[in-house]
Amino acid sequence: MTYRRIIFSAALLAALAVSGCAPSPNGSLDTQTATPSPSCRVHQTTDPGPRYTAGSRADTGSVLEMMRYYTAHGSKPFCDGEDPTSADRRWMDLYAQLGGEGRRTPGPDTLVP
């Protein structure tokens, strides 16, 4: 393998890794993939998209990832210490509608400080 290929491959891998950190404009959940065990949550910037809300046509893998995320991290405080935004609330409502436990997504008066 030439040095050019090595450098190109490394640059491509870095670009792919960084691209996963930006919020998705298509209604995807930001699961903080760069932080596997976050101590707090970031606010969601978009409402749930069709891949989560399309009923039987929803993407099963995406729905399961969202359910896993809220089961593991839904009761953690937001990193900025603020209450949930309207987009956060819609994601938490979707989690509950799909059978998630309400205690995993507390209301603003029960968020951990």
Any idea what the shape is?
Answer: globular
Number of strands: 0
Report the mean per-residue pLDDT as an integer: 78
The ordered H/E elements are HHHH
Helix content: 40-55%
Distance between the termini: 52 Å
Structural class: mainly alpha
Backbone CA Rg: 17 Å
Beta fraction: under 5%
Unreliable residue runs? 10-24, 109-113
Taking the sheet with the most strands, its summary is: none
Number of alpha- plus pi-helical segments: 4
Quick description:
By secondary structure, this protein is mainly alpha-helical.
Structure description:
The radius of gyration is 17 Å and the shape is globular. The termini are far apart. The protein contains four helices and no strands. The chain is mainly alpha-helical and 113 residues long.
What attributes characterize this protein structure?
single chain, 113 residues, mainly alpha, 4 helices, globular, disordered C terminus
What layout of secondary structure does this protein have?
Elements: H1 3-19, H2 50-53, H3 60-73, H4 86-97
